[in-house]
Amino acid sequence: MPVLQAKRDAAVARMAVLPVVPTSGWTALARAAAAERLSVMGMPGRRDEYWKYTDPTSLSQVDVRSAAVLQSDESPVFGDIDRLKIVFVDGVFDASASDDLALAGIEIERLETAASEDAHWASALFGVLEAKGQSPVERPLAALNTATVADGILIRVTGKVEKPVSLIYVHSADNSDAVLHHVVRLEEEAELTLLENGPAAARFNMVLEVDVADRARFSHIRAQGRDHERRAATHIFARLATESQFKSFTVTVNGVLTRNECVIELTGDNASAHVAGAALGDGDFHHDDTVFITHDSVNCESRQVFKKVLRNGAKGVFQGKILVKADAQKTDGYQISQALLLDDDAQFLAKPELEIYADDVACSHGSTTGAIDENALFYLRSRGVPLADAQDMMILSFLEDAIAEIEDASLADDIRGRLEGWLTRRRV
Amino acid sequence: MLEIKNLHVKLQDEDKQILKGVDLVVEPGTVHAIMGPNGSGKSTTSYVLSGRNGYEVTEGGATLDGKDLLEMDPEERAAAGLFLAFQYPVEIPGVGNMTFLRTAVNAQRKARGEEELSAAAFLKEVRAKAKALKIDADMLKRPVNVGFSGGEKKRNEILQMAMLEPKMCILDETDSGLDVDAMKLVAEGVNALRDGKRSFLVITHYQRLLDHIKPDVVHIMANGRIVKSGGPELALEVEENGYADILAEFA
What we know:
The structure holds two protein chains of two kinds. Chain A is 23% helix and 37% strand. By secondary structure, chain A is an alpha/beta fold. Chain A has one domain. In chain A, helix 1 (2-16) runs antiparallel to helix 2 (26-41), helix 2 runs antiparallel to helix 6 and helix 7 crosses helix 8 (387-403). By secondary structure, chain B is of the alpha/beta class. In chain B, helix 4 crosses helix 6 and helix 6 runs parallel beside helix 7. The longest helix of chain B has 15 residues, at 97-111. Chains A and B meet through helix 7 and helix 8 of A and helix 2, strand 7 and helix 3 of B.
């Protein structure tokens, strides 16, 4: 099998150039196992079914394509939100720029520090949820992450946290190649809002493992953007216990290549998972949302809402799957992916998948691709709204369904402001 | 105010002539009504004047206060004082009615070099005007026209007109789909805007609306032209005898 051999060789070559990681302790074991997984499956290739619409080359190859760091006078995302800030510069924790990691109801530790401890709660999760998420679809870039990661944050939540924890990714060097791996564990009835923002690096590989215990609630809001030439492959692996809740929203603007994978397993009854995304791209923007939700328990609910606005050659991809196992009766699954194409050069590729083995479920999916409604545009203009403003209003209204998935009103407003700003800047 | 001269219009994508030489002058402060059978070109006239895509002017023109309307973008026509109340107001999910109104009011003010209305001043004005049209707070908050009944949509059109204070209002079959009470409400809204300077062009099939909005001049349109003009009595004649008699004169 020459193709597989080439992919395996690529994996070995790639791992060889990444930073040397600890060789003892619990993280070393997880890393070795991940390296083993990766060397068997190899790096993703262009012929892989799962990479049909997105070329993985620049994400998997050894060399990093440089990305200019954009100087912007735009106020940072979540700037007005009271939060605990944890800053990474080109993928390295920056203690001086970060807040004190002590906060009531939560333990926050750097991966590096925790790795030296003999026994750690995160050892039951680090690389474990990722490994589980490798089946039935392989996700080599996530295995690469676990095998080679140098930094990250471990968060254990025991109560209701008074403010969001905010991961801020600063991009500083044009050719930075950052790998971060975070683990979040919410104990029973705990609640946490996790924020992420920033361009991170020229190339960014991020894995977030989230374990949500009974009746706990996890909320995640992410803003990816700014540096146009940046590339990112991110994976979220989440496991949901009884009556737990998981909500994740991502806004993406700019970026020549972004692949966001979200792999969720509903393992306890009455659990709920919502994943949403709004992407806005121009030119050589390429954005890929790949979601895999497994229903493995009774009466669970899942919801996927993805909206993309593309123009001037920008490309959007959505691969969304709902797998309902035989015992997952009373499943309520919903999935919608929609694209607004502002011109003939933009492209949207959607692959919705439902695989259902239980017989008492409600699952629906839909996907639409279209242009701005000319009637509505004329209506707005006839009231005196200039063309460009009218278009922006239509674009924002199109994205609103996804933004409405954000529960917190002030965070949702922040995201709306972000999108308005992007649209305004793009006019000149 | 509004002057239409020998206006010839065809569909852009089809070789179909719709307007074949419309002449019309609407003086300041007057109400003109255009009546006519289906397909006579009434709605096309309103769309061409307001700048909708899909039409091609092959001859003639139209001016508002001496300015060439047809050269302007739809938003420029609006800022110049033209307003079209749509026969079928468009639903825009995701855009709040209030946001839409405020954006429109301020865009027009900006285009005219006037100061934008503050949030408080706008709110005060919109509340007062909405109340007169029996538009409740909930309707103002909802997305533009989404889930509105036929009557609510038309009232919403009149609210926009009241907020934008245009010089020249075109009402395209505003009475269609309205029950008697809703029509009265809409007519009251329109009449409240009559101030001796503002002009109206009321397009309708039926004389009924003209009982409430009293026209100064009534025009009968047929086959892309205005074939007869007269006083309010012309509308009554149509109501009584239909269009056949009038059209027969020109056959």
